[in-house]
Every structure is written in C-alpha cells, then in structure tokens.
Amino acid sequence: MMDVITITMLIIASFSGDIGVNDLGGAITVWTSEGSSVTVDQVVDTVGVPDNLFPPDRLTPECLAIDATIMAEGEGGVRLTLHSADEGPLMAVDYSHLLLLVRGEVGGESLMIMMRDATMMGPGEAIPLGPVESFLRGGRIETNWGLARIALTEFDMIDLSQLESVELVFNTPGAERVYVDEIALTGIPAAQLDVVEPPTEPQEPVEIRRPNP
Ligand SMILES: [Ca+2]
What we know:
Blueprint: E1 8-13, E2 28-32, E3 37-44, E4 62-70, E5 76-81, E6 97-104, E7 112-117, E8 127-131, E9 146-151, E10 163-170, E11 174-187
Antiparallel strand pairs: 1-11, 2-5, 3-4, 4-11, 5-10, 6-9, 6-11, 7-8, 7-10
The structure holds calcium ion.
Residues 14-16, 59-60, 62-63, 181-182 line the site of calcium ion.
C-alpha cells in the first residue's frame, strides 16, 4: 500500500487581476535607484506555457512584462508583498520551493531573485537567492517559458514562518524586457511528513518530462 503525498501549491501572483495587487492581496510595487527605471505591464501571453512545465489548470493567460533600464551601478526591482495591509507576514513553513515562470524578449536576460522576511528592514536587506537563470534548466533565460525552481530549504537564513516579500531585482546595466508568471510556493504539507518517510531526493513539485535515454 502506498501513501499518497499531496503536493500543495500556493499561487503568489498569476497577474490575472489588478496589476497592483497579487493573489495573496499584497501589493505589487516597483522601485529603482536614481536614474534607472523599471516599469510593469500586464499582458496576455502569446507564447504559451508547455503542459509539462506547469499544471495547466493553475495557469492564467495574463503575465507580467517588465521593462528595466539600469544605469551603471544602479538597480531596480519589482516587489511582491506577501500579505495585505492589515495582515501579517506569510507563514510558509509548509512550502519547500519557490516556482517562477520566466522568459525573455531576446534571450540571455538576467534578474536576481531575492526574499525578505519580517526580521529584515528595507529593500537593502533582502536576501539574494541567486540569478533566476541559475534555477532554470539550461542556465539561461530563453524566449520560450522556463520554470525556475528554487529550493527554499537551502537558504536557512530565511525565516519561512514570516515571509515578507519576493523581489525581482535588476542590477545589470542596460535595458531588457522579461516576462514572469505564476509565481508560487509549493511543497509537502508538514502533516504529510508525519505519515510518510521524507523523500531522500529533493521532491520534484512539478514533473518535468525528459526524453528517454
Ligand atoms: Ca498568469
């Protein structure tokens, strides 16, 4: 007899509603250092996300287009606050991974994924998780959608019991346009771990089909 492990998914931002509010009710805001610019637009995706990349029933057609123009030594970003004005930080200890769909206008773009928890103060204190391309198969942003899968359990400096924000940060000088969508947390609920042996390999929250060898 096999125990069924339920993989939970919490969509943070599907970009299908008000452009200034994410799916958790928190704000979507942009910020930059002086001289740089970051603008966002909500657009209907025309490329299409492969069925084997993300659960089709959790996809919404709209995504976020981000135009970033960064000066030398400048930076800017998009902040997704993980709670509304009258509710506290997000309790996320049941989630093991941050997922993010990303594609570029020409390919080879770069952006940094950061997170803040409620023990941090101000944008300068966000914890960098790494360039999004380092979490993609192939290690590069392409013009087709790729799924970045970030194992949060590898970042023990982040307090998952009080997440404050997900940050998409641009700090490479130049101009680029990238698209992001379906930012989500996924994982095995802690209660499930009471009845099953934890997997020895990191759990794959979304199945990726590979060609047979
Ligand atoms: Ca969407």
